[in-house]
Design brief:
Elements: H1 20-55, E1 63-71, E2 77-83, E3 92-95, H2 103-112
Antiparallel strand pairs: 1-2, 2-3
C-alpha cells in the first residue's frame, strides 16, 4: 500500500516598499527638467527669429495681416502673421511680445473675429 503525501511549500513573502518622498522628488526633478527644456526651446526659437530677422529685407519684418490667434505654451497670446514681402508659406506664429508695431492689423483682425 502506497500513500501519497502532499508537501505544501510555503511561498516566499515578497514585501515591496514605496518611498513616497523619493517618488515625489523624482517627479519634481522631471517637471523641473521639462520646464528647463521648454524655456531653452523658447529661448532658442527667439534666437532663431532674431537671426532670421538680420537676413531679411526690412519690409519683411512688417506685418501685412494677422491671420489667426491662439494661446501659447506659456499662456500668452500668439498670432499667425502674414509678413509683408514674404510668401504665404512663410507666415509664422509669433508671440505677442515679439510682434513689431501692428496695431492697425490687430484691429482689423479683431473686427473680423
Amino acid at each position: 500500500m502506497s500513500s501519497a503525501f502532499a508537501v505544501a511549500a510555503a511561498a516566499p513573502t515578497v514585501r515591496l516598499t514605496l518611498d513616497v518622498r523619493a517618488v515625489a522628488a523624482a517627479a519634481a526633478a522631471a517637471a523641473a527638467a521639462a520646464a528647463a527644456a521648454a524655456a531653452a526651446s523658447k529661448a532658442e526659437q527667439v534666437s532663431e527669429q532674431l537671426d532670421m530677422a538680420e537676413l531679411l529685407p526690412e519690409r519683411a519684418l512688417e506685418v501685412e495681416q494677422v491671420l489667426a490667434t491662439r494661446r501659447g505654451g506659456d499662456g500668452g497670446a500668439e498670432f499667425l502673421i502674414k509678413w509683408e514681402v514674404l510668401p504665404w508659406s512663410e507666415s509664422s506664429w509669433e508671440c505677442e511680445a515679439a510682434l513689431p508695431p501692428c496695431a492697425a492689423q490687430l484691429a482689423a483682425f479683431d473686427a473680423v473675429g
